[in-house]
Design goal:
Layout (H helix, E strand, L loop, with lengths): L3 E4 L9 H13 L4 E3 L6 E5 L3 H11 L8 E3 L6 H4 L5 H10 L4 E6 L15 E5 L4 H10 L3 E2 L14 H8 L5 E4 L10 E4 L6 E4 L5 H8 L3 E2 L26 E4 L3 H13 L4 E5 L11 E4 L6 H17 L4 E5 L7 H11 L4 E2 L1
Parallel strand pairs: 1-8, 2-8, 4-6, 5-9, 10-11, 12-15, 12-16, 13-14, 13-15
Antiparallel strand pairs: 2-3, 3-7, 4-7, 5-6, 9-10
Bound molecules: adenosine monophosphate and magnesium ion (MG).
Adenosine monophosphate (AMP) binds next to strand 6 and strand 10.
Length: 346
């Protein structure tokens, strides 16, 4: 399939950008699937009401069919059509964090969305993205759009249109290029179908931010204990992994350099994921500095770029520094643990 490519400005109403966004919206209305930027990562969108469109998303990504999709909307009024009820706590969360990197799980209204989009569950995940291109596109289509990250399943999520191209060129109908995304990690997923809201996936909006607004919330036990079954079906799958085996190191820079040296002495090409503060200390075959440790948001923003870059360098083993579990550090460590298949060295 030929993949259309539209380069658009964040200033979406210009003579240049608007017609391109319309073209992308037209394809969505025809139940084709296209990639578009959001503030978290690039999404692969399709009409959430149409079985064929949703099947195309799953096929393009190679995504397991039991992993439901997040439904994207541009206006809160669109919720009434797809959810059974809007709990008070969800109202509060939406008022503060939408548009933004927070996905809310509601009880689904029967028969409005494709059952493939919700993987047959009685609940549905919904979010309003905070990106002018995404919002304009959603407004133009005027349909709920299911959009998982626009990568092949298992790979790091795409934070640029080039990443999308690497994975999905000639496989999807189009890519809207709106430049690099900002947040860099996916949305936080919070289940509001029970009395106590529970975070199922840490992401762009932090637990601290949520608790400041609504009081204590729960954490899915699977986020702490690897043996528990995650409530978000997608959280059980391996994800974000570079081609080479990766190890997180819970230790000093000296310890990390020692591990690098050992592997290089065995003749291996060694990659290292570090931060701006520490990068000049190390000697390795390939070093990626992922933002500043003192500003965890900058680490989140370039995390997937870093994970992807190891594949272009043909490294044979990767070591990675660890990050504090505070703020967006929760999401960073969650993704790194998955990328490293939970392999941590002390
Ligand atoms: P992605 O679209 O790849 O960013 O992933 C969306 C995440 O939300 C996956 O982990 C899904 O399993 C999860 N998710 C989507 N819908 C639901 C739902 N109704 N209940 C629980 N988790 C969900
Ligand atoms: Mg994903």
């Amino acid at each position: 399939m030929k993949t259309s490519y539209w380069l658009v400005d964040k200033n979406v109403d210009t003579k240049h950008s608007y017609p391109q966004i319309q073209q992308a919206a037209d394809l969505l209305k025809k139940n084709e699937v296209i990639a578009f930027p959001t503030e978290t990562v690039y999404g692969l969108g399709g009409n959430a009401k149409d079985d064929d469109a949703i099947k195309k998303i799953f096929a393009a990504k190679g995504r397991p069919s039991d992993n439901p999709l997040i439904i994207h909307i541009a206006k809160q009024e669109q919720l009434a059509e797809i959810v059974e009820e809007i709990p008070e706590v969800a109202q509060k969360l939406m008022a503060s964090f939408w548009p933004g990197a927070l996905t809310i799980i509601f009880r689904a209204k029967k028969g409005t969305l494709s059952q493939y989009a919700t993987a047959g569950l009685q609940t549905v995940a919904v979010r309003m993205p905070d990106h002018p291109v995404a919002l304009k596109l959603l407004e133009e289509v005027d349909l709920p759009i299911a959009a998982p990250s626009a990568n092949r399943s298992g790979k790091p999520s795409p934070t640029t249109a080039l990443h999308v191209k690497e994975d999905l060129d000639q496989i999807i109908a189009g890519i809207v290029d709106g430049g690099p995304t900002g947040v860099g990690v996916e949305s936080t997923v919070i289940d509001c179908t029970d009395l106590l809201p529970v975070i199922l996936r840490p992401g762009g909006i932090t637990k601290e931010q949520i608790e400041e607004l609504v009081g204590e919330v729960g954490l899915d036990p699977a986020l702490i204990n690897k043996e528990s079954k995650p409530k978000a079906p997608g959280m059980k799958y391996s994800h974000y992994a570079p081609n080479a085996p990766m190890f997180l190191v819970n230790g000093t820079k000296e310890r990390i350099q020692c591990l690098v040296d050992e592997e290089r002495n065995k003749g291996k090409k060694v990659g290292l994921l570090t931060t701006e503060e520490n990068k000049s200390y190390y000697d390795a075959d390939y070093i990626f500095a992922c933002g500043k440790r003192a500003e965890l948001h900058s680490v989140a923003a370039s995390l997937y770029e870093g994970l992807r870059s190891f594949n272009h360098q043909d490294v044979e083993i990767i070591f990675c520094e660890m990050f504090p579990l505070e703020g967006v550090g929760q999401a960073i460590m969650n993704r790194l643990m998955k990328a490293a298949s939970h392999q941590v060295m002390d």
